[in-house]
Amino acid sequence: MTVNREGTPDGDRERQLYDKIPDVRDGLTREERVVLYVLHEAQKERGGRNVPTAMLWGRICDHFYISPEALSAMLARFGARK
C-alpha cells in the first residue's frame, strides 16, 4: 500500500474523491445514495412514518460522517419538509 504526502493511503484518498462525483445515471453522489437508502430503511421500520432527522443522522454516521447541518442541507435539496 502506498501512502501520499498527507499520510493517508492513496486508495482512501481516491475513494474520497470518487464519493463526491455524481453518478452519470441519476446525478447522485455515493453519500446522497447512502442517505436515501438509510432513510428508506428507517421509514420501513417505522411503518412508513416520517423519520426524525436526529435518528437518521445517527444511522448515517454508521456509514460515514456528515455534520447535522450538512445532512439538513442535503435533505432540503431532496425536498424534505418540516
Short description:
This protein has 82 residues and is mainly α.
Key phrases:
single chain, 82 residues, mainly alpha, 4 helices, globular
Task: Give a topology summary.
Layout: H1 10-19, H2 30-45, H3 53-60, H4 68-78
Outline the structure in words.
With 82 residues, this protein is mostly helical. It has one domain. 55% of the residues lie in helices and 0% in strands. It has four helices and no strands. It has helices at residues 10-19, 30-45, 53-60, 68-78. The longest helix is centred in the middle third of the chain and has 16 residues, at 30-45. The relative contact order is 0.11.
Structural class: mainly alpha
Q: Which word captures the global form? A: globular
| Oligomeric state of the chains present here | single chain
- The fraction of residues in strands falls at under 5%
Instruction: Give the N-to-C terminal Cα separation.
Output: 46 Å
Provide the residue-averaged pLDDT: 85
How many structural domains can be distinguished in the coordinates?
1
Number of helices: 4
* Biggest sheet descriptor: none
Q: Stretches where pLDDT falls below 50 for ≥5 residues?
A: none
- Give the SSE order as H and E letters: HHHH
How helical, in percent, are the residues? 40-55%
Number of strands: 0
